Amino acid sequence: MDASAAIDQAGAQIGISVEPLDQLAQQTPASQSTPSSLNTFVEYTQKMLGNFFNYASSFAITQVQMTPNPSESFVPLSVVQRWYENYQRKMTNDPNFWKN
Fold first, then answer.
1. Could you point out which of 46, 69, 74, 84 has its C-alpha 20 to 30 Å from the C-alpha of 53?
2. Which pTM was predicted?
């Protein structure tokens, strides 16, 4: 099998180019710029979710400890836990899901 046949079967080709440094400097981003990273966003979101869950769960009380207060609403901690797990799953599957 010759090299061209191998390329046709694999469907990919890798090449190396030797260019003058001046030309490369024009092609690469400035050294002071920082590329946006999806992993950084995912990490931030996971930490924010964890912080929210910890904050909300710090107010958790049992039903016996509850004093009736008609002007206040209560959300079961299990609902917050389920939301937290669903959001983490969505972020794992598609970090851009929130843009839809």
1. 69
2. 0.51
